[in-house]
Design goal:
Length: 134
Amino acid sequence: MNDEQANATSQMEAPQEVDRIRDIIFGHQMRDYDQRFQIVQRDLERLQQELDRLAERLAEQDSSQAKRLQELRQEMRRADDDLRDELRQATQTLTDDKVDRVALGELFIELGTHLKSGGFLADLLKDLAEKKQG
């Protein structure tokens, strides 16, 4: 059993010795790689945080622009409605204020007749004013 114990102890020490030899040979390089890896990892985390912050700002700007676009659309609708109302009113005013063709024709006939008979335009206008008042 003594040989077995020595053999078992020898097998347990072998990996530890291999690790120690590896540390002696490659230790400096491994520590250097480990430091570089940690630096890269920190940079990556910092960049991820910056990316998250930028994504958040972009989302806020998107929301702000969408709200502004909505306001502009409403303003355009109001302006369009106002313009349409003004156009309707102008059309209605023109419809109400225009002279009837028949009445205008009769006025021209009366004017022609009055001028033909030797009357003056001033007299005709005076007569028309009196008719309108009366």
